[in-house]
């Protein structure tokens, strides 16, 4: 005799289906999270320790080479719009005002060869830097390569946060590939261009008034320009320069939809070709190729719309955001650099030993948005392990100059001093990132390369960290910065790493 068929209530069957659906969704979420956070370069570790003792003991002639590659996107395809990075989503590029470049500089002291390539870009993740290095053949004999982004806010999205809306990435995979290939090509060409050289290091005072504003207390700038000037050994001609300064390239501001290299491009143009107006040469250029690397831009260093910039060659002031204002910023810098580089002294040197200390570092992640963004497909970068990102720091000595490579937007007070125990800060601690980085670095002229080999966002002093009320310095609302930072442990970890590398670099000379 057959058992009677038992029909379960509808609600019971619905719960079973809901449970199955929930399980499938949970499995999909786990798989998606695993895929999003996977390590793109498992096992990748970099540890470079190159002493300059051989170069100091048995000097060889310095050589330098420069090259550049254009990195303009293709416009005009309505099905594949180019989304501009910075400010907000849905900012579609409408035209190219002036060209974007990957500019490379390679130096070789006869024992060690180092390459630097600066990109007119919002940022470049460490995974992409590794990809560039992977394109560089062993025949180039590059002992260390530094890839920097100028953090330009009028360039295509290369990070993923500025697409058509806040749920869609703005990165075009083909454009990313173009930039990676161009960076490698520029470095390759710079190696091929290596020639005997003389280098002089300059530190030029530039008051921030009328150029850059600090939009977050404490008011601390990284105001001065630092220049490496490479000439032929007899000083007869300029080969190129490497220039650093600290300011966000966002001068045309948020309503601009034209691609531009901003003041970085205007400065390079003035240094190479001079300043011209209505067919008249207002200041002659130097020739050569010129590389701009940004410095300490956190805090936030910017030519805000409230800042009026004076064009020293036209005698005109520009306040409203525009390409003319960007040009005026570049010319302000050029007006200080060009006369210095034409002075007969210092003569520079044809012998500049190179020492390198560089290593990868794991940084803890304490930012819910940075966890959600990869799952949504916005941030396409790997995690070395759960809640940790792989990044990189480096300290170099080059002649009587030094370079600290910082993988993001560091606050100037960490670099130059002035970290405060900010009233209203979340931790109520004394400054952690002391002494300032420039007090740690060896040498006479101390360069800081921001957004070097990564873009991890803002690097905020722990004693100034503020996510919860009461807000800093009695502010009625939350301050800007923490939203785009890995977390409060980032600055202490990077400061400690740079301090350690600087000690190792100095120890090599004892």
Structure described in brief:
By secondary structure, this protein is an alpha+beta fold. Helices cover 25% and strands 24% of the residues.
**What's the count of strands?**
24
Distance between the amino and carboxyl termini: 97 Å
Overall geometry: globular
* Count of helical stretches: 10
Task: Describe the strand arrangement of the main beta sheet, using strand numbers.
Answer: 1-19-20-21-23
**Approximately how much helix is present in the residues?**
25-40%
The biggest sheet, with number of strands, parallel, antiparallel or mixed sense and barrel status, is: 5 strands, mixed
> What structural category do the secondary elements indicate?
alpha+beta
Global Rg: 25 Å
Low-confidence stretches: none
- Estimate the mean pLDDT confidence: 94
Strand content: 15-25%
């Amino acid at each position: 005799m057959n058992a009677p068929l038992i029909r379960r209530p509808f609600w019971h069957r619905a719960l079973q289906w809901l449970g199955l659906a929930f399980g499938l969704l949970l499995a999909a979420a786990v798989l998606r999270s695993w895929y999003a956070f996977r390590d793109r370069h498992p096992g990748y570790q970099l540890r470079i320790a190159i002493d300059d003792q051989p170069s100091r003991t048995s000097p060889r002639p310095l050589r330098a080479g420069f090259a550049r590659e254009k990195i303009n996107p293709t416009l005009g395809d309505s099905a594949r719009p180019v989304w501009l990075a910075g400010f907000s989503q849905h900012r579609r590029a409408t035209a190219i005002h002036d060209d974007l470049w990957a500019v490379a500089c390679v130096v070789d002291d006869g024992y060690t060869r180092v390459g630097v390539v600066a990109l007119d870009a919002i940022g470049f993740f460490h995974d992409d830097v590794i990809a560039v290095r992977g394109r560089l053949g062993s025949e180039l004999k590059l002992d260390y390569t530094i890839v920097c982004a100028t953090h330009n806010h009028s360039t295509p999205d290369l990070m993923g946060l500025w697409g058509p809306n806040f749920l869609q990435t703005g990165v075009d995979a083909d454009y990313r590939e173009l930039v990676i290939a161009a960076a490698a090509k520029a470095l390759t060409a710079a190696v091929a261009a290596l020639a005997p050289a003389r280098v002089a290091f300059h530190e030029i005072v530039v008051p921030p008034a009328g150029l850059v504003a600090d939009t977050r207390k404490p008011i601390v700038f990284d105001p001065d320009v630092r220049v490496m000037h490479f000439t032929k050994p007899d000083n007869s001609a300029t080969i190129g320069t490497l220039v650093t300064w600290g300011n966000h390239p966002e001068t045309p501001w948020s309503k601009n939809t034209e691609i531009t290299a901003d003041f970085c491009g205007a400065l390079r143009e003035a240094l190479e070709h001079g300043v011209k107006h209505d067919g008249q040469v207002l200041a002659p250029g130097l020739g050569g190729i010129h590389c701009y690397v940004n410095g300490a831009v956190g805090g936030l260093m910017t030519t805000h719309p409230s800042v009026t910039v004076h064009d020293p060659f036209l005698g005109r002031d520009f306040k409203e955001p525009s390409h003319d204002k960007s040009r005026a910023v570049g010319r302000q810098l050029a007006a200080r650099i060009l006369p210095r580089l034409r002075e007969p002294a210092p003569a520079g040197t044809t012998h500049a030993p190179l020492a390198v200390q560089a290593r990868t570092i794991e940084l803890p992640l304490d930012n819910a948005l940075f966890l959600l963004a990869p799952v949504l497909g916005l941030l396409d970068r790997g995690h070395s392990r759960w809640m940790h990102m792989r990044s990189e720091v480096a300290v170099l000595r080059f002649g009587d100059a030094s370079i600290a490579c910082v993988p993001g937007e560091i606050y100037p007070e960490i670099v130059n001093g002035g970290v405060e125990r900010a009233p209203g800060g979340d931790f109520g601690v004394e400054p952690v990132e002391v002494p300032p980085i420039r007090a740690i670095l060896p040498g006479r002229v101390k360069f800081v390369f921001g957004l070097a080999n990564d873009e991890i966002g803002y690097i905020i002093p722990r004693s100034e960290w503020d996510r919860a009320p009461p807000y800093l310095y009695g502010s009625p609302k939350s301050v800007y910065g923490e939203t785009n930072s890995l977390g409060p442990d980032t600055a202490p970890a990077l400061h400690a790493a740079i301090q350690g590398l600087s000690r190792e670099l100095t120890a090599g000379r004892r």
